[in-house]
Design a protein that fits this description.
globular, 171 residues, 4 helices, alpha+beta, single chain
Length: 171
C-alpha cells in the first residue's frame, strides 16, 4: 500500500465499528491510550455524536475499508480553552509505516486552521517514539513531560506534551 492508495474523509456513523475496532486494539495491547477497558459501539456512538465541526473525526479508507482514523478533541472543557484542541491518530496495526499517520495529522492541522483553532496539542506516552517523531516532523514542539501519571499493564507511564501553534503569538 502506498500513500496514494487511501483517501481521507469525514467519518460517518457507518465507520464506527471499524473506528472502535482500531481503537480497542490499542486499549488492549498498547500504552498509546491510557484507557484500560475497550469501548463498546454504544460508547463510541455517543462520543461521535458529541463531535462538532471544530472537533471532527476523519478516517483513512483504502479498498472500501477504514484503516485509520483521527480526531480533534477539546483540550479542556472551560470556555477559555475553546480554540485549543488535542489531536489523536490511530492506524490499524497492519497498515503502519505507509504515510497514514502523517496524512491524517496533516489533515487535522488543516481542518484546525480552517475552523480558527489557535493551537493543537499532543499528549503521548513517552514509550511511543514513532508518534513523537511524527509530531516533531509535523512541527510540534515538545513543551513538557509529566512523570508517572498513567498506570497500565502493571507499570507507571510518563506523558510527553507537544504543541503546534496555528497562529502567530498574540493572535
Amino acid at each position: 500500500m502506498t500513500p496514494m492508495d487511501f483517501v481521507i474523509r469525514p467519518a460517518t456513523e457507518a465507520d464506527l465499528p471499524a473506528v472502535c475496532d482500531i481503537y480497542n486494539h490499542y486499549v488492549e495491547h498498547s500504552t498509546c491510550t491510557f484507557q484500560v477497558e475497550p469501548d463498546t459501539e454504544t460508547e463510541r456512538l455517543a462520543w461521535f455524536r458529541d463531535r462538532s465541526p471544530v472537533h471532527p473525526v476523519t478516517v483513512a479508507e483504502a479498498g472500501g475499508e477504514v484503516i485509520a482514523w483521527a480526531a480533534l478533541s477539546p483540550w479542556k472543557s472551560r470556555c477559555a480553552y475553546a480554540r485549543s484542541a488535542e489531536a489523536s491518530v490511530y492506524v490499524r496495526p497492519d497498515a503502519h509505516r505507509r504515510g497514514l499517520g502523517r496524512a491524517l495529522l496533516a489533515d487535522l492541522i488543516a481542518r484546525g486552521r480552517a475552523v480558527g483553532l489557535h493551537t493543537i496539542l499532543g499528549a503521548t506516552c513517552t514509550e511511543h517514539a514513532a508518534s513523537l517523531a511524527l509530531q516533531d516532523a509535523m512541527g510540534f514542539e515538545r513543551v513538557g513531560v509529566t512523570r508517572e501519571v498513567g498506570f497500565k499493564f502493571g507499570r507507571w507511564l510518563d506523558v510527553a506534551y507537544t504543541q503546534l501553534m496555528l497562529e502567530k503569538p498574540g493572535e
